[in-house]
Amino acid sequence: MPVLIHKGVLRRSLFLNGWHCWKLLNWLMPVPEKLTGLAPAKVNLTLEVGNKRDDGYHSLVSILQTLSLADEVTLTPAASTSIEIVGPFSGGVPADSSNLVWRALDVLAHLLERGGDTFHIRIVKRIPAAGGVGGGASDAATALRLLGRCWPAAEENMIAAAAAAVGSDESFFLTGGTALAEGRGERITPLPSLPRHGVVLFIPPHSLRNKTATVFAAFDRDGRIDAPTVSASLADSLPVNITGADLYNSFEQVAFDCFPGLAQLWEKIVARISEPIRLAGAGPTLFWIGPLDRTEQVYEATSDLDCAVIPTTTAGSLWKP
Questions:
Q1: Shared domain check, 139 and 215
Q2: pTM for this predicted structure
Q3: Is 23 a catalytic residue?
Q4: Which of 7, 26, 129, 234 has its CA 20 to 30 A from that of 95?
Q5: Active-site residue among 42, 125, 211, 226?
Q6: Once rounded to an integer, what is the mean pLDDT over residues 48-52?
Q7: 184 with 265, same domain?
Q8: What is the pLDDT of residues 287-301, one digit of tens each?
Q9: What is the structure's pLDDT at 31?
């Protein structure tokens, strides 16, 4: 006759018997038939690059902001792990174990000593890949948050460790909203929320292989190091209405040399809208930010340029209580 264990009894047992029983509960908890969540894009309101550290990374100080533009990530338990990429920006996104969502699942399962958990991963890509707006990192962070809902042992410190192991921007996307990132991007401090702004993204038709490494190498050759004064000033002033004139990105010093045609695109956009724009992350996406009621005008003035033009808005965190 099978022995039935009431979960309340098991939980009390865990308190007495420690980690091994906690792992048993972790195994007994069923995974829902399907887990789905949105994975928002981001822009860097500031990005100030400091000295190269002993571990090879640069010290960064950045204020990041999530957008309403978002991918959709769905995890469905399956006999083996597989991945499906669909949507308007699915081209060029890896559909194998190199995808950041797949890597995030593997890392978290390893940290929790879970074996045998396999999923069909489905990602609806509405965020351009390798554009500097964080689509892949956000997808991975959303997958970690989804698993945190159904794996009891996936406490906040474990999810944070998995995010930091996968990459730099993943840590920010666990929080979202408006936040300060430091270190190599893994130290996150939530900030007062930016008031809702309009944003228009301008995505050039081509990016670069090994883009981030290429841009950092160009920055190192340039030899300039930024003190994080703009980030500190903006953080102290929040919440406040902003435009591109209030923002800063260290990589704008080298982006035109790294991305063919970017300087010409920048000039065309500014000529059309007569307002400043900024580089998103390590590029090559450019963006305008400003009043909500100006967004449609900016979009209409630039929609026929040789790039993808996406109107969106700033957005708060999806994960804060």
A1: no
A2: 0.87
A3: no
A4: 26
A5: 42
A6: 84
A7: no
A8: 999 999 999 999 999
A9: 61
